[in-house]
Amino acid sequence: MKLIIKTVAKPGSTNVNKTGAWRSFMPVFDHKLCSKCGICDVYCPEGIVSRLDNGYYEPDYEYCKGCGICANECPKKAIVMVLEGK
Amino acid sequence: MRKSMFVVEGSYAVAHAVKVCKPNVISAYPITPQTHIVEDLAQFHADGEMNCEYINVESEFSAISALIGASAAGARTYSSTTSQGLALMHEALFNASGMRLPIVMTVVNRALSAPINIWNDQQDSISQRDTGWIQLYAEDVQESADMTPQLYKLAEDEDVLLPAMACMDGFILSHVYEPVILLEKDITDEFLPSYDPEFVLDTKNPMSFGAFADPSTYTEFRYKQEKAMGVALEKIEQIANEFKDIYGRYYGGLIDGYVLDDAEIVIMAMGSVIGTIKDTIDELRTEGESVGLLKVRSFRPFPKDAIRKALKNAKVVITLDKNISVGKNEGALCTEVKACLYNTDNRVPVIGFMLGHGGRDIPMHMIKKIVNKAKLVEKGIFIESEFADLREDLA
Amino acid sequence: MSLLKPGHRGCAGCGDALAGKFVLDALGEDVIVISPTGCLEVFTTPYPESAWGVPWIHSLFENAAAVASGVEAALKSLGKKDKTKIVAIGGDGATLDIGLQAISGAFERGHDFTYICVDNEAYMNTGIQRSSATPLYANTTTSPPGKMSSGNPLYKKNMPAIIAAHGSPYVATASIGYAPDLKKKVKKAAEIKGPTYVHVHAPCATGWKIDSSKTIEVGRLAVETALWPLYEMENGEITSVRKIKNRKPVEEYLKLQGRFKHLFTMKGENPHIKKIQEIADRNAKQFGLE
Question: Which of A82, B75, B76, C260 is the Cys-Cys partner for C254 at CB 3.0 to 4.6 Å?
Fold first, then answer.
């Protein structure tokens, strides 16, 4: 790594840090209940819930910290938090 | 080359030098005795003579902070302050240097409170010596002015990229009227290239400035600052010579000598007292004394090697300090000169004298008294360091 | 994809990260962000990484508004200040406390920039110490409840009013619980010329001792109880307020948070909750929220 002397860092470069490893509970998205409103995307603090081509949403588990906001905010209760490793 | 010499106030000469360096952003807060510089700049700006933004900030802390933002955005920046104002900037001085922002600032040296005192000594800038700023000390008004473009050139050098202080003694230089050659606009253009940094705050290349460094990288940022100071050591000399080639004026690079080569007693000092010392030496020489002067122009970076070389033949070294590290009973120059000789074979005695605090005058007879005291070393009486100009009735 | 990239070290359920994301959503790529020291700064930029997809600078804790002044002046002087927005995003400590002087200076001078305060009501980065934004009776590590204390004894400082008194053309309050409203206000603030201000209420799961999934829910409750009224002020006049249907009692907001837990363990009639309810009632009346 070459040190840029001006304490300067490259944009968006935290993506090397896979925060998915922090997770205890994992959000599981149930497309059958989903109304495609996108609230889960809006209120994700990591900005890692994306809209799929079919209009449904999925989180990027590489970064999802499992905070559970998406599940708490989902008006259709289409997201459940499941203990990791179960 | 046309020389335009005018009798102007020291502050005006500096303001004029700043003007021809064409800074993009000036940000300053008024404090005696810096005020005339920023007033003159405000007038240039008001008269449309400067194409820059002039920010009247609400404190010195914001003055330097605004320049940190401006410099990171790619601007050439200028401020001036002194004493309490410089102390208020302290935290941000480290920040500017750590972020490698080549801000240039004139420090109009003044004493620190308490007791509050508006007159000259050098406690203010000396107290900032570890902040990572280049510090040059000017001997007279002409040097104070000419130092400005020299410091921009140095600070903005891509292998240096460190902020720089041009230190000039308050009132003694800032408020004195002297004949000065004012730099002309086009002349400065050929000496000082435009500032074109590799990284700036730019929406087309969105870099992040001022990241958080943990123990795995912090040390290397410090190391690189130190390396840059090492580069500055060479460039100060180089730039002083370049300036001399174009304008014919030279004040020394890192150091300068005055009848130094054969001198047995060497007086070391920084700033406006140099002139007084030169006159005193002239008299002492006619009286047969072997006295010379070693002017220290660059205090940061500290010119260790140059000083070692210059003191090769000295029998006694006298350091004059307009500052004190309370609790050490020494001024900074004394401490540093001793330290730089310690790992050499040169065991010349170094005697520290502190004087001129809070604006107390330093007359020629004071310098003579100091030289006589230092000579006592030959008789085996060694003074380590002391106040030279104490009023016995108050002490 | 958000311009605030993942991989940052914000806690799970972080309100600051949401605020940062919403601000960038609202402003797009043509913005320079200035951050004072604080959680958002630290967790987004561990060298050599940065979560920011826009140019960003951090200098010190107390000088973001002054740094922003300098960035604005530089862009003007270099002829680059056409459409580029300049936005400072600071926490409540950096804004209401240590950075207040620099903010006052920058607003008085009239720089064209937007200051966004992300208010999580304590010094979270250093471990949940009280700031002047900490609400009455909140438990922080420097305002703990005890035999002689019911938590923070002081009222929250009214920062939007202080900024409005500087003659700012646009001052607004927002909440991370209302993302579209927040984004609309940030966009509007940035588009108005001169120094503008958006004060964003942002619950901190760690500091408020709430479950990480409740950040948004608690944020909404602050608004629904009238403890955090949402309004806009243009040139010193209130021009819009978000009305509340069926205002909820403050208990509903307080009981979800560990920082107010001590208020619910007292025996008999609770004068503290009553006092907090009075704040909400006053807000409802002052801003005509109902």
Answer: C260
